[in-house]
Each structure stands twice: as structure tokens, then as C-alpha cells.
Amino acid sequence: MSRPTGRVLTLLELLQSGGTRTIAELAERLGVDGRTVRRYVDHLIDLDVPVEAVRGRYGGYRLGPGHRLPPLMLGEDEAVAVLLGLVAGRRTGLTTATATAGETAAAKIRRVLPRPLAARVDAVLESLAFTEPAGESAAPDAGILLTLADAVRHRRPVAIRYTDREGRRGDRTLHPQGVVAHAGRWYVTGRDPGIGEDRTFRLDRVADARLLPGSFEAIEGPDPARRVLSGFATAPYRHEVTLRIRGTAEQIRTRLPASVASVTALPGTGSPSPAPEPADAREPDRSDTSEASEASDGPPWLRVEVRAERLDWLPPVLAALDLPFVVERPDELRELVVALADRFARRARRS
User: Fold this and answer.
1) Which of 54, 242, 250, 262 could pair with 328 as two cysteines, CB 3.0-4.6 Å apart?
2) Could you state, in chain order, the average pLDDT of each consecutive group of 10 residues for the chain (351 residues)?
3) What pLDDT, on the 0 to 100 scale, is given for residue 246?
4) Is beta strand 60-63 parallel, antiparallel or unpaired with respect to 51-54?
């Protein structure tokens, strides 16, 4: 590479770092005079790099938006950060468009890394392991994601074509409040103006998104991430579970996050009346004493509501919480809890 070409690339890297650079600053960094800086800028413009001239006392040159992506100059640390981000995003399912887009972008960066650095990056990738399984969800279309993000920023209504989990297709109108990434999937949440209710849609099930005329007012209430999590906790499922648990919300959230359960305060701080238990499932005297002790002090009782397709996972979770609780409904869950307690008691007595 000739020295002038190398300086042109250095100029591009300086402009890509952001802000307006004066001619004097650029000349000093490149080791040339002002006239040569202007000639290098002309070279970049000939390559369709959108360099803008800024007039005035603090004028100079800056990089502006263009009709296509210009050549991108990355430092070694920046290249490694982007490369690892692409790998992690593809592994967790938080990529857009097709998987090949992330793969080709990573391949381009990997191809131009200096050999010593490329070998070290390869060592990281070969030794890297993930505790979570690979994301299996279909990636959303990048164009749809950009359209929805634009609608959120400018508060524009949007029409979407959506396929629900039952396979039914339909057209919806949405006042989008935000785009949320959660557990390897992308979601858009907002208000359906037709029914006046909050709705959340998976982006990989959105086949088309189109901006509509007009605008809407911001909706008061939780932020988009909380809307999505509360939507998971209140979605219709086979079982509706109501519990009373004595403890703090923080303690309960360690095992029952906001995406699984809703936690609300109960009036008063006394112990609720527990549902009657079979005589052979109670520990005489000792349990009654402990319940009386728990009622006298400690944190308040909270109502916890869970919706679930299956109940067998809940008794171990309640055991792991190690907090006083009462099952209000359903009876099936109460029976599962008693059965788990009996199994624990039998196994603990074995020599």
C-alpha cells in the first residue's frame, strides 16, 4: 500500500470516530499540509464516502449519511468486540434477518484480522461454551424490525400481518410502545386501538409491517419490558394458580420472576387462614407452634398468581423458596405439594 493510500484510509478512520475534524487537526494527525488533506477528502468523495464540509470558525470535515454503507475502519479491539457480539447474538437467537447475514458479516471481519489476532480470536471461539441452549426461534425480518422501531420513535400507528400460535392469520393495527428482546425472541408491545387493550406480538410471526398516517399519544404505565413480562404472567393457560406467600417480593422473584407470576400486596400483615390439611399430613403441636410464631412477626403475606400449562414444576419451586405459603387454588396443586412433602419425609427417614 502506498503512503498516500494509507493516509486516505487513516483519514477515513479519523472521520468515522465521530464529530467534526478541523483541517489543521487532520493535517497534524496525517503529517501533511491543508491542501493535501483537501485532496484526500476528494479521494474519499470519489469513492462515494459521504464526507461533508462544515464552514465557519470551527469548521472542517465530518462523515455524513450516504446512500450506501461506506468502508468501515475498525481498530483491533473494535473488530474483536463486533465479532464476538455476532457470535453471541447468533447463538442466543437475538439476530435479525437470516442467519447467513450474521455469518457473512463475521466471516468478513475474521478474514481481515491480522494473523496473530485472528489466531487468538479463534482460540476464544474454540474454547467458548454457553450454559444456555442455542436459540431456536426464527429470526425477525430486519425490515420489519426497522419499521416497528421507526413507529415507536415517532409514535406512528402501524399495520401488521400476524400469525398467532394457533396458526390463524390476520391484520392488526397497533400503537407500538417498544421493541423488547427476551429469552432469545423479539417482541413488539403496544396498544390495540380497536379494543383499547395492551397487546404483545412476537416479531418472527409478523409477516408484514406498514406505517399508517397520523400519530398517537404516549401511553402511561409500565415500560415496554415490564409490559411484555406482565403479559407472559397473565396470558391464558390451562391452570390458574393463586397462592399466599409470606416474604418480600424480592425473595419471591428469585424463584418466580415477573414473566411467570404476578405479586400483589394483601390488606393487613397477619397470617392468612390456611386451608385444612389431612390429619396424617400435619405435624402435631410443632407446626401449630411455628404458624403462631410466623403470625406474630416477619414480612407480610403477598398474593401470588401464576398461570401454567402444568403444575408439577411448582411444588419444587415452593420448596426452594423456603417461605410460609398457602395454596388457595387449585386443589390439584395442594395435593401435589402434600405428595412431595411425603416423599421428602420418607426419604429423610431412610438410614
Assistant:
1) 242
2) 76 85 90 91 88 84 76 81 83 65 81 86 83 67 88 94 88 92 85 89 91 89 84 78 94 90 77 44 41 59 91 94 94 94 91 73
3) 94
4) antiparallel
Q: How far apart are the first and last CA of the chain?
A: 79
* The C-alpha cell that represents 177 in the structure block: 410502545
DSSP assignment, residue 58?
T
Return the number of other C-beta atoms located less than 10 Å from residue 88's C-beta: 13
> Residue 59 to residues 15, 17, 28, 115: CA-CA distances in angstroms?
13, 17, 16, 39
Q: Cα–Cα distance between 201 and 189 in angstroms, integer?
A: 6
Radius of gyration of the chain (CA): 30
**What is the Cα–Cα distance from 82 to 142, expressed in whole angstroms?**
18
**Sequence-separated (6 or more) residues with CB below 8 Å from residue 136:** 93, 184
CA distance 77 to 81: 6
Can you tell me the distance from the alpha carbon of 110 to that of 124, in angstroms, rounded to the nearest whole number?
A: 13
190: enclosing H helix or E strand = strand 185-192
Angle at 347 between CA 343 and CA 351, to 5 degrees: 160
Residue 36 dihedral angles phi and psi, to the nearest 5°? -65, -35
- Under 8 Å CB-to-CB from 146, ≥6 apart: which residues? none
The residues near 243 (Cβ < 8 Å, ≥ 6 apart) are 303, 304, 305, 306, 318, 325, 326, 327, 328
Can you give the pTM of this predicted structure? Answer: 0.56
